[in-house]
Amino acid sequence: MSVRLVVTAAVSALALATASLVSHAADAPDFEYFKAKVQPIFLTKRPGHARCVMCHAEANNMLRLQKLPEGQTTWSEEDTRKNYETVVKIVQAADDPLKSKILIHPLAPEAGGDAFHSGGRQFANKNDPYWKTIAAWAQGATLSSEKKKK
């Protein structure tokens, strides 16, 4: 095999990989929607449950949220971006965003969720407004698309 053929093949493979990454990033769920609608769910106290952040701040699992600074009630812009990068990877790891771990793991088994979630069943079913918010984001909702619906 000639050097020229090897170089051409390598350049082609790199171009294809770059195009795939750019396409994947362009398809990523909306950051602003995440910041305004999804991330606050991780801070919400639900009856009978701990807030997601209590177990997932600096956790050693897929949903590793940033720790809230002492006395703060929400994350900084930098920490919000880190949380977004973590959660978007969970969504993008699934062929179908509605089957991503962020939606299935905390969902009750009788509603199609995982058999075990140590934080309890955060969502009893897919009609839960918080589940619907995360699902809408995972499927590409934006703040502007939400305004158009109203």
What does this structure look like?
This protein has one domain. It is 49% helix and 0% strand. It has helices at residues 3-26, 31-38, 52-56, 77-92, 101-104, 129-138, 143-149. Helix 2 packs antiparallel against helix 6 (129-138). The model is unreliable at 17-24 (pLDDT under 50).
Number of separate structural domains? 1
Q: Kindly provide the radius of gyration, computed on alpha-carbon positions and rounded to a whole number of angstroms.
A: 19 Å
Query: What is the H/E string?
Result: HHHHHHH
What is the tally of beta strands?
0
Morphology: globular
Category by helix and strand content: mainly alpha
Main beta sheet, described? none
The chain-level mean pLDDT equals 84
Overview in brief:
The protein has 150 residues and is mostly helical. The chain contains 7 helices and no strands. It has one domain (28-149).
SSE blueprint and pairings:
Layout: H1 3-26, H2 31-38, H3 52-56, H4 77-92, H5 101-104, H6 129-138, H7 143-149
Helix pairs in contact: 2-6
